[in-house]
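Hi! If you just cloned this repository, the fastest way to understand the data is to look at a raw example. We've pasted two of them here, unedited. The first protein comes first, obviously.
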Amino acid sequence: MAENMEEKVNRAILVGLNSPRLSQMDNATDSSMEELAALLETAGGESLGVVVQNKDCPDPATFIGDGKVDEVRDLVQATEADLVIFDNDLSPSQVRVLTERIGVQVMDRSALILDIFAQRARTREGRLQVELAQYKYLLPRLTGMWKHLTRQNASGGKSPIGTRGPGETQLESDRRHIRRKLQKLEEELAEVRRIRGVQRERRIKNEVPVVAIVGYTNAGKSTLLNHLTGAEIPANNRLFDTLDTTTRMLEITDTCTVLVSDTVGFIRKLPHHLVEAFKATLEELQYADLLLHVIDASNPEWRDQAEVVDRLIRELGAQETPRLEVFNKSDLYVGDIRPHGENIVSISAKTGEGIPELLQKIADRLDSGAKRVVLHLPYEQGGVLDTLYREAKVEQVEYAETIEVTAVLTPKLLGQLRGWVFPPLPEEKEDWER
């Protein structure tokens, strides 16, 4: 009885193609196949075997060639697998042919990642973004699903009864339905972008710096945000554990407060539709004052992973944003000399090692020169207090002969209100007067 109640786990054979005709990024390698197995586990599946084909060029119909297809089919039957997942992207027609030939569902890496994102999205914004990516992925595949009917209709009208017309009609109907859904989703996400834009303008006006944490999936971004801000985001050792952006205030020094945002993890072969859909979230990188690129120092392939992140940062137009490279899990680093340099810091988000140095480097780059002062406001200037609550960090208010306000002010606000500061601030001198 207990066995029947257990959720059925997908059992899959993993397949990859290595070919000189494919780019280095698109090829299946030992590490990319290991990552595919980790993705399958994240999705709740189990790997029963791995097949890698070395071939001069991809087969247009089956991608891996007829002989290898037969080998995969035999392995599926022997292991009773119910799914085959390719590490490479497949065309819609290749998916259809392979599914027919192997006898179980065939999907590619992009479809698997989309499935994981669909499982993990929690907020309305996250769900909208995933749904948009799924529909964009599905739209070109409709043709492959209905192509056999279209082909029969084009053969001079001698197609079997029941296949003249309805297939094409259904295809067009499905396309129209999906295009309507896409338009609606894009309108909703445009509204998300608009709201983000308003919030961003308010932050800029209030001169609150923004720090965005980016990095390869499972590099430790959420653990770092938790350590810095006590955000209490679930931080598990699995891929794509965080999809929904979390933003928290962080007081770096008593006069420097910043907003820190966690972002979705990057991964090699990340579906383009997913990057496009998540631009509503990821465009924050362009407007951040500082990027913390978190790198898993314990992973032997950290250089390749860092390059994937760098490429996506460029694609998102954030390559000019100042950046610190944060080598996390440095307590597990296996090399002889830890990476070091002016824009590099080694930390362990788990143990706290290196965090003070990281905070100092953030402060060095973002401290705006704010000062803590006491203002003595006449009661007739009570409206200034509203401005202070909006644009400064008000710490204490006392009502005596005047309104005494202790607050941290930006240089701009301090310049406007310095006449009410007590004790008076010394006059600032120009460089040539010093």
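Ok, and the second one:
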Amino acid sequence: MLSKREIDEVLNRLEQRYPDAECELVHSSPFELLIATILSAQSTDKRVNIVTGELFKEYNTPEKFLTLSIEELEDKIRTIGFYRNKSKNILNTCRLLVEQFDSKVPDNRVDLEKLPGVGRKTANVVLSNAFNKNAIAVDTHVFRVSNRIGLANADNVLDTERDLMNNIDESKWSRAHHLIIFHGRRTCKARRPLCEECNLTDICEHFRQI
């Protein structure tokens, strides 16, 4: 694992490379972000944005979603992976929001994780982007890039999150999340990282070994 000084340098360089790094799921409310994040599991933000661009025009509150049958919702999100299971989770989440949370998205992890289809990663995305709370959501990009570069040294997402929280100042958690995701999507790709285009090769543990 990199030293604290090296990790700070990695984040500084990523900031220079991706000053526009931000959540790429298009949303206008905590509820829309919650639904979009549930849909994004094992799918791309680009595909989710195409679907929600139409979906949210008419259905942007829990009550409006609950006017849909599960078959109707499945038809609207059919181009997204695991659409049947996601349809069921979304409608059950909407029902729980109405019945237990006054139709508002909770702003704490404990209550968020009570919602069907919401795990720790989704909760962290919502907390960070909808409520401006310090959190690091570890998706496939963050897991891969963090362990490849040396920001973490773990073989599962929970331990990766723990390492990142220990190695990065809390005030930078949310920003680091976006920077690492951008790097993973644009440069440090899964199958063939574009090391020749990367500005971290003199620090990156993966590059030192190739």
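That's it. A detail worth noticing about the second one: Residues 59 and 65 are 6 Å apart (CA to CA).
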